[in-house]
TrEMBL record:
Gene3D superfamilies: P-loop containing nucleotide triphosphate hydrolases. Residues 318-327 have a biased composition (Basic and acidic residues). SMART domains: AAA (SM00382). This is ABC transporter related. Residues 245-265, 318-339 are annotated as: Disordered. Pfam families: ABC_tran. Residues 250-259, 328-339 have a biased composition (Acidic residues). CDD domains: ABC_DR_subfamily_A. It comes from the Archaea. GO terms for molecular function: ATP binding; ATP hydrolysis activity.
Amino acid sequence: MPPIQTSELTKYYGDVRGVEDLSFAVEEGEVFGFLGPNGAGKTTTIRTLMGFQSPTGGTATVLGADIRDGAALREVRADVGYLPSEPSFNENVTGRRLLDYHGSLRGDIRSDEMLELFDPPLDRKVREYSRGNKQMLAIVMAFMHDPDVLIMDEPTSGLDPLKQEQLLEFIRTEQQRGKTFFFSSHILSEVRKVCDRVAIIRDGHLVELEDVESLLDRSGKIVRARLSGDLDPDALALDGVHDIEVSSDGSEDGDEGDGETAIAKSEATSVTFTYTGAYEPMLRQLLEYEIFDLTIEEAPLEDVFMRFYGENPAERVEAVENGKPVDSEIEEGAEEADV
Ligand SMILES: Nc1ncnc2c1ncn2[C@@H]1O[C@H](COP(=O)(O)OP(=O)(O)OP(=O)(O)O)[C@@H](O)[C@H]1O
């Protein structure tokens, strides 16, 4: 049985939809990213999985324990690490005291090791902690009992770039030790770095679930070329060419450059497009011109996600869940409320 599995998981707060009909499984040893814009339902899902609130419909299991069964959940707690989105602690005691207490409840197998990587000032009272210090303390608590499954809500939030990188590196190492991760994020670069698969949630619905590599493959490459002479966009009307933009150099580019550039500018055309086909026919086509510059790079993950996140429904790809299109005309009002 997968360590985390949800089945039509639904949570409403009164009339406000948190999440609806979420069905997915997180496989053992995978790093599973859970992405979505503000108010999409990430924290709702995580808190429901942790048993802090009851689902309105459907259910889920964590290490086989039904989240509606408090006793079963308590039994698996020792094997689950949890990092909340905004860790809050008793502010009047020291970090060390909190770690000791947490250790007495869940066990302490590796706090010393964790504290070498994430080092909040343990002898100070938590009320003196910065946001980043609190996050580090929470990270140590999430891992110190060496759980098999980690459920984390925006784990890098509040950390400086170095610590963010350290945490991602740590996640990769832990994955190699067989740990399973489920974490929410807005940060695409971190998803790219560590996740095997991502689920994208919007307006409480799952709109995509795919491995990161396939998402990127599907989104194609961005080709940018600067070519000699005038270019007829139709000349590049190949299968797989999308969103082509052509401009003659100098019209948009305010850079004066040196003499050489100025000559090239007057004779050059810049072309940018997204390409999802095989390289050869596209390159043959470009070679009809003299090529001054050519770059081919992976489409940014941002572009891929904007297709799912886009505010304008017409920009979104068709949302599909369980083979059925999901209604994208759902009311937006609920997104305004604070968590
Ligand atoms: N305790 C609550 N009472 C009422 N509505 C809530 C509550 N918690 C969340 N919601 C609503 O549920 C929806 C999902 O919120 P949730 O916090 O799960 O989103 P999120 O994806 O975690 O957002 P963010 O990225 O901003 O943290 C939102 O419309 C939110 O306003």
